[in-house]
């Protein structure tokens, strides 16, 4: 089931002061970026954040699940998705540990 655009917009609106937050459609679902750095996915109207050491410490009791079949587990954000300050802080913490995107090869 593809994610609903209203849910994607809601998630993007929740994240503040964590860079330029954008969503790119990928196979009916969405990649979520901060300043072009992929930090999460929205699949089946659920938010998944890439796991990081600091993110795990911040969350505490982490719920992990793969966003799609065959994917590595990510942090599944359910209960706190409506807490804008908490979610924004998780994104800020997480993007510090995630690698920069690889440069695209020129054709």
From TrEMBL:
<protein>
    <submittedName>
        <fullName>TfoX/Sxy family protein</fullName>
    </submittedName>
</protein>
<dbReference type="Pfam" id="PF04993">
    <property type="entry name" value="TfoX_N"/>
</dbReference>
<dbReference type="InterPro" id="IPR007076">
    <property type="entry name" value="TfoX_N"/>
</dbReference>
<feature type="domain" description="TfoX N-terminal">
    <location>
        <begin position="13"/>
        <end position="96"/>
    </location>
</feature>
